[in-house]
Each structure stands twice: as C-alpha cells, then as structure tokens.
Amino acid sequence: MVSRADTSILIAGAGPVGLALALELARRGLKPRIVSENDGPVAGEESRALGINARTLRLLAPSGVTADIQAQALQIEGLRLSSLGNPLLTVRTNRYRGEYPALSILPQGVTERLLLARLKALGIAPEWRTAVISVNGGTRAPEVTVHRDDDSGETVKPSILIGADGAHSLVRRSCGLSFPGNALENEFFLADYAYDAPVDASHARVDFTNPGVLACIPIRTNLLRYISTHADFEERIAHPAAPAAQTWRSQFKISFRHVPEMAKGRVYLAGDAAHIHSPIGARGMNLGIEDACWLAWLIAEGREEEYSRLRLPAVRRVLRQTRMLTAIVTMDRPSSLTLRNRLLPLLSHLPFAEDALLKGIAGMDTPHPPWLAAA
Questions:
Q1: What pTM did the predictor assign?
Q2: Sign of the C-alpha dihedral computed for residues 44, 325, 320 and 55 taken in this order
Q3: With contact defined as beta carbons under 8 Å apart, do 217 and 237 qualify?
Q4: In what order do the strands lie in the sheet with 143-148?
Q5: Is the confidence at residue 46, as pLDDT, over 80?
Q6: Which residues does residue 264 pair with via DSSP β-bridges, in sequence order?
Q7: Rounded distance between C-alpha atoms, residue 94 and residue 79, angstroms
Q8: Lowest mean pLDDT among 152-166, 250-264, 329-343, 344-358
Q9: In what order do the strands lie in the sheet with 103-105?
C-alpha cells in the first residue's frame, strides 16, 4: 500500500454513504474531513431507507458496524406477492445461505447513528451545519468554499474531493458532471404506522391492485410502512390492529439517472450524487455504501483513478434491474397485468429463479470486494 499520510480528503455529505466512506478511510489510517449542511443525522421518525443487504453487512463487518446493525435490525422471513389479495408468489429470503441475512430492516436514522458512533471512536466527527457552497479551480485542483450557519466560512484545497451530497449534488453540478436519465410519471405515496402491540412482521407484502400496487414493509414489530401508487392508499389499508399513530408520511416520484463517469480529475462521486433509481429492490443506500467502501479502499491503495471503471458496471446493472422491477409494479395495460399474474406463480417451481432473486436481494450480484476474503 502506498503512503497517503499527506492526502487531504474532503467529503461533502454526511448521510449513510458519506459516513461509511469516512469510516472506511479512517480505519485505514486516513483522516478525512466530512461536512454537511444538515443539523445532524436523519430524524428517528423519518425511517427513509430501510433495507440493509448482505453485501453491505459484509462490507461493514471490519469496522464493527455490522454487529451493531444485527443487534438492532428486524429479520423478515420473506416477501409475499399477491394480486387483489390472491397469492402469486412468496420469495423466502430466510432461505438465503450466505454469511449474513439477505435483507435486514433498520430505519436509516438508526443506521446513521451506528456509523457515527464507530466514526467517533476513531476520532472523526462530521461538521454539521457546514455547507459546500462552491467548487472552483477546476477538477484537477478543486478549491472548495464551505459556509457555516454562524456566517463564517473558508476556502480549502483538498487533494481529493468527494461528493456524497445527494441527488441534487452541488459538487456534481459545480464540476460540470452531467446526470442524464429520465423520471417516471407515476407518483408514489408512503406512510409509516405505529401500533400499540406487536403485529405480524414476518413478511413484506406486495399486493398488485391491477393497475397499481399497495405494499407493506415491516420496520419494527409494532411499526409498518405502507407504499402505494394510489393517492387514496390510506383508505385501502387493512390494518392488522387499530394504529396508534402515523409516524411519517411522504410522496415522491422516481427517476433513473447516473453520471457517465463517477470521477473527474480529483473529484469523485458516490451514492445518490452519482446514481438514483427506484427504491424497489432496496438497492439505493446499499449501492451507495458499496461505492463508498470501494472508493475508500482504492484511495488507501493509491488507485483511486480506477474507481469509475470499477464501479460503473455495477451501477448500470442495478439500474437495469430496478427499471425492470419498477416496470412490473407500475404496468397498467390489461394484457400485461394478466401475463404478469400468470407468470409470477410459475417462478415458485423454478429453484434457479428464486436463487437469482435472492442473490439480487442480497446484493451479491455485483463484483466481490477484493480486499475481503471470499465467503
């Protein structure tokens, strides 16, 4: 490994991707600076990204975060697909025979706090309420102006600048990196409901409403998330018990975009700053954390110029998969709906099909990280 002791690294963004990147760098002896315009980690009541796949657990194991996640995460047995209440297919995630569960459920705010705790133990803390407001000087020698909420600021010249600052990344835009793609017309709606007593949290459920969908994802044994393409979805929910409270509500549209290159000069992009796609399949946060771990390893090895070449194939693969899954969920032509409802039950008779699904859910369909021993 080359010595990177004099390398100054600035990370813009302190979500799961930025935090994972800082942690992976720090445990390799590097001391990145990480800034965020936010006040702190995601609020606990905003569960946001939930799924943590086996690939992410394997990547975060050396830092100790995986053990922390497993101590708090919910393990589900599988995913049940139905059409107007009639069963179509059950994907049994508990059949996955990897080192870690195919998919664990944990609110994003908890994941961020676990990453923060491990990062703090290594002597690094994000600078909250500190925004990157401009990047000048070109990508070969970026000059970054940061501004704090006390009206103070400074201009720094990092050896490496990393944009982990989300879909509207200022780093990406300031450096002239394009973000081609398209948005779907469909709007999605979600709400999290808490219950006074434990409810059935053994399976995630997706019910096709022909057209449209109403899905339920367990978060805790007394907290469920409902997602739908119907604006009136709350009237369609068959609650397992009288809900005690609605803890969060949101609506969003889906876009599929990724940068043509994930790096330019001394500027690198990770997570939503580099690629966005449908949340169907629970790959978004996981793919971003995968970016972070690869980039940290490459920087420590002095090979960061290989980052874009190594990561883009995985990004393109996941976007193709999530496009396909989203198309299955959002299709509305009667002939397509009929065909989907006939084909899905057949998959239960094809073991290789379930194995392929489980591999994708686990995130094990991307290249194995070469710094980790094969499982």
A1: 0.95
A2: positive
A3: no
A4: 130-136, 143-148, 153-156
A5: no
A6: 267
A7: 10
A8: 344-358
A9: 51-53, 103-105, 74-75
Q: Quickly count: other Cβ atoms within 10 Å of residue 186's Cβ.
A: 16
Overall size of the chain counted in residues = 375
d(CA 267, CA 259): 13
Work out the number of other CB atoms within 10 angstroms of the CB of residue 327: 14
With CA atoms as reference, report the closest residue to 163 among 315, 9, 13, 275.
13
pLDDT digits (tens, 9 = 90+) for 161-202: 999 999 999 999 999 999 999 998 889 999 999 999 999 999
Around Cβ 56, how many Cβ atoms within 10 Å? 28
The token pair that represents 111 in the structure block: 């994941």
CB 216 within 8 A of CB 204: yes
Cα gap 375→65, rounded to integer Å: 18
**Which tens digits make up the pLDDT trace of 201-241?**
999 999 999 999 999 999 999 999 999 999 999 999 999 99
**Amino acid at the residue 258:** H
Instruction: Determine the residue type at 12.
Output: A
CA distance 194 to 197: 9
Domains and CATH numbers, the chain: 9-361 (3.50.50.60)
Query: How far is Cα of residue 81 from the mean position of the Cα atoms in its chain?
Result: 23
- The answer to whether the CB of 161 falls within 8 A of the CB of 136 is no
Residue matched to tokens 């808490």: 194
Tell me the DSSP string of 5-50: TT--EEEE--SHHHHHHHHHHHTTT---EEE-SSSSSPPTT-----
CA within 13 Å, CB half, 295: 33
Q: Cβ(46)–Cβ(110) under 8 Å?
A: no
Instruction: Say which residue the tokens 């990508």 belong to.
Output: 139
**CB proximity list for 158: less than 8 A, separation 6 or greater:** 8, 9, 10, 33, 142, 144, 266
CB 12 within 8 A of CB 164: yes
Distance CA 38, CA 294 (A): 25
Spatial CA neighbour of 362 closest among 113, 123, 155, 104: 104
Which tens digit of pLDDT belongs to each residue from 80-111? 999 999 999 999 999 999 999 999 999 999 99
